[in-house]
Amino acid sequence: MKIPTLLGFLVLLTSSPMTNSFPKQFNQVPITEYHHKPVAGSNFGYLALAVIAFSILFRPSPTKPPVPKCPSGYTLYENVCGRFCYRLESQSCRSFANAQAICKEEGGDLLKPSACSYPMFRGLSRQQTGNCEDFWVGAFRTLPALNYVTVGGAALEDNFQFWGENQPSRTVNAGRQQACVQIDNGFDHLLNDDFCTDTVGFICQTLL
Ligand SMILES: [Ca+2]
Ligand SMILES: [Ca+2]
């Protein structure tokens, strides 16, 4: 219903009643009495109708889902690959353990590697011009085990397609001691297992 139409309807409802107050024996009622004679109960009914009409017109719109809110310094990541918040640190380079501790203090953990979202984070890492060129992500192995696991405890597939050339190097000489995974500038921003004590950048992730 259009606003002018509704307002007209409401004015009609809340004005002095006419139909119910029309005397059955019109000729027997003085003009002055006709104009001022109240009719018990009719105004209350009209008021109730007006309230109903207002409640229909001004009823609250359906509640919209709350806008996701990321922690300060974090950016919302949202597409078919997932929905979470992330923060890439490129100024303050840290060891794997220190980087993970910072992410946990901020309510999350290091970014869990995902084949679906990796291209975006690879591109983001490539754009960085800060102090740190490589970036820890949430995958590691506990020596002397050879299998990498993610921060969620799930296995990082050996066929993860974003390992750098000849990586992981866990079975090759010095590579045996490389147990933490990073996006490595030296490998075209693909994954490399490196020494956990190296100080590099890192990517934190918090779930919504
Ligand atoms: Ca490196
Ligand atoms: Ca390596």
Which characteristics define this entry?
disulfide bond, 2 domains, 5 helices, Mannose-Binding Protein A, Chain A, 208 residues, eight-stranded mixed beta sheet, binds calcium ion
Can you put this structure into words, describing what you see?
- With 208 residues, the protein is of the alpha+beta class.
- It contains five helices and eight strands; from the N terminus they run H-H-H-E-E-H-E-H-E-E-E-E-E.
- Strands 1, 2, 3, 4, 5, 6, 7 and 8 form an eight-stranded mixed beta sheet that branches.
- Helix 1 (3-14) packs antiparallel against helix 3 (42-57).
- The chain starts with a helix and ends with a strand.
- The structure holds calcium ion (2 copies).
- One calcium ion binds next to strand 7.
- Residues 81-205 form the C-type lectin domain.
- Pfam families: Lectin_C.
Number of helices: 5
Biggest sheet overview: 8 strands, mixed
The quaternary organization reads as: single chain
Order of helices and strands: HHHEEHEHEEEEE
CATH architecture of the largest domain: Roll
Mean residue pLDDT: 82
Supply the helix-strand structural class: alpha+beta
Strand content: 15-25%
Q: What proportion of the residues is helical, as a percent range?
A: 25-40%
CATH topology of the largest domain: Mannose-Binding Protein A, Chain A
Quick take:
With about 210 residues, this protein is α+β, with helices and mostly antiparallel strands.
Secondary structure blueprint with pairings:
Elements (H helix, E strand, L loop, with lengths): L2 H12 L16 H6 L5 H16 L17 E5 L2 E13 L1 H10 L3 E2 L7 H9 L8 E6 L8 E2 L29 E5 L5 E5 L5 E8 L1
Parallel strand pairs: 4-8
Antiparallel strand pairs: 1-2, 2-8, 3-8, 4-5, 4-6, 6-7
Helix pairs in contact: 1-3
The chain binds calcium ion (CA) (2 copies).
